[in-house]
User: Which sequence fits this backbone?
């Protein structure tokens, strides 16, 4: 390996080790709980912050029906983590029994609860 290749590898390793490129999955269990309990007709107050919980409760009939139609979660594949103004957000590719895979984001952790969860985007 030449000097330039070695320096490039060191630079890439340093970037990936920085907080902006943190790539460990930490929120999968909470995301699975949010999706499955919402599909079953309940907003899980133990993992949702106040604003997210209020939004979930307001939209529960539509969200519950939509999520239930996808079937059970078969897998949740970690895609990446991002540092955003509202805090760390993790993106997962969630595959459902229906065969559909949707990208989901979860983050904004504060006092042990999440303030952000969404489907779509990338």
Assistant:
């Amino acid at each position: 390996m030449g000097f330039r290749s070695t320096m490039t590898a060191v630079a890439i390793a340093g970037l990936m080790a920085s907080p902006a490129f943190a790539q460990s999955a930490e929120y999968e269990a909470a995301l699975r709980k949010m999706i499955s309990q919402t599909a079953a007709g309940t907003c899980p107050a133990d993992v949702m912050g106040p604003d997210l919980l209020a939004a979930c409760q307001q939209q529960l009939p539509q969200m519950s029906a939509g999520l239930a139609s996808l079937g059970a979660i078969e897998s949740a594949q970690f895609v990446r983590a991002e540092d955003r103004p509202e805090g760390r957000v993790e993106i997962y590719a969630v595959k459902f029994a229906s065969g559909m895979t949707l990208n989901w984001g979860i983050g904004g952790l504060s006092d042990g609860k999440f303030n952000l969860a969404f489907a779509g985007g990338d």
About this structure: Residues 1-21 have pLDDT under 50 and may be disordered. Residues 23-119 form a domain with the Nuclear Transport Factor 2; Chain: A, fold (CATH 3.10.450).
